[in-house]
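quick one before i forget lol
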Amino acid sequence: MISKYINVPVFIASLIVGLLIIWFTMQNDLRKIYVYPTPENVDVLQYRDKAGNCFSYKQVDTACPKSESKLAKIPVQV
């Protein structure tokens, strides 16, 4: 029934070709893991920037200002 609508050898060959194209084009992206600093992992992780420099963050507790005019809104960076 399926062979009436789909040529099985052509389907399998095109599936293999498609998977190989995806494998070779996405190979570099498989190793990238994006980790963002949280209070739980700030002391454990080191980060690397685009220039290859390693750095880490230091958590500092600060008091919030009582006046809302002193608060700054920082937009999300993509």
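fyi The two ends are 49 Å apart (CA to CA).
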